[in-house]
Amino acid sequence: MDDDEERLTALYDLHAGVLRRYVTHLTGDGAGADDIVQETLLRAWRTPRILAQEPATTRAWMITVARHIVIDEVRSARHRHEHPVAELPERAGDDETDRLFDALLIEDALAGLDDGHRSVIVAAYYRGRSTAQVAAELGIPEGTVKSRMHYGLRALRLALQERGVTR
Predict the structure, then answer these.
(1) Residue 86 lies in a domain
(2) What is the pLDDT of residue 94?
(3) Which domain does 73 fall in, by range?
(4) Which residue in 14, 22, 94, 104 has its CB near the most CB atoms, within 10 A?
(5) What angle do CA 14, 68, 23 make, to 5 degrees?
(6) pLDDT digits (tens, 9 = 90+) for 20-53
(7) 39 and 103, same structural domain?
(8) What is the pLDDT of residues 95-106, one digit of tens each?
(9) Is residue 145 within 8 Å of 131, Cβ to Cβ?
C-alpha cells in the first residue's frame, strides 16, 4: 500500500463511522448516507490543510461539510420535484429545513451529555422550569441544579463546536 492509500484508509477508519451515523440520523436513509460520507471524505482528502489538523478539528469540519451536503440534497430534491400549478398557494410557508437540522444537531449533542447534566438542561430549557422547580422535580439541591446547568451547558457548547457549530 502506498502512502496516499494508507492516509485515506486511516481517514476513513477514524471518521467514516461517526459521519455515517450522523448523516443517517439526519436523513433516515442509510444508503444515501454512504454517498454523503463518501463525498465528505473526498472533500476532506482534497483539502490538505484539513488533514493536517487535529483529528477532532478534522471531524468537526467533516460533520459541517456533511450537514451542508445533506441540506443541499434536500433542497435540490425539492427543486427537482416542483410541479407548476394554475393557482399559487394562499400563503407560502417558511423553509423549516435549517430549523429541523439545528434541532437534530442539538438533540445529538444533548445525547452525548451525561444523564445529570442532560436532565437539568431539558427540564430548565425545554420544559421551562425554574431552578427551584428542577430541584424539586429531580430531588436534588438547588445548588446542584445550578452547578449541573453550568457544566452541562459548557459540555453542550463543546459538543456543538465539535459538530461544526460556531459562535
Answers:
(1) no
(2) 67
(3) 3-80
(4) 22
(5) 50
(6) 999 998 888 887 888 899 999 889 888 888 778 8
(7) no
(8) 788 888 888 888
(9) yes
- pLDDT reported for residue 167: 61
Q: Please, are residues 122 and 108 in contact by the beta-carbon 8 Å criterion?
A: no
Angstrom distances, CA of residue 137 to CA of 111, 118, 132: 21, 14, 9
CATH number of the domain at 11, please. Answer: 1.10.1740
- The structural domain count of the chain equals 2
Kindly report the CATH number assigned to the domain that includes residue 118.
1.10.10.10
What is the C-alpha to C-alpha distance for residues 167 and 154, in angstroms, rounded to an integer? 13
Residues 59, 115 share a domain: no
Mean pLDDT of 141-164: 92
Last residue of a domain, one of 18, 53, 80: 80
**CB-hemisphere CA count at 13 Å for 4?**
4
Asked whether 19 and 37 are in contact (CB, 8 A), the reply is yes
Cβ proximity of 104 and 26 under 8 Å: yes
Residue 140's alpha-carbon distances to 113, 129, 144, in angstroms, are 18, 14, 6
The answer to whether residues 21 and 71 belong to one domain is yes
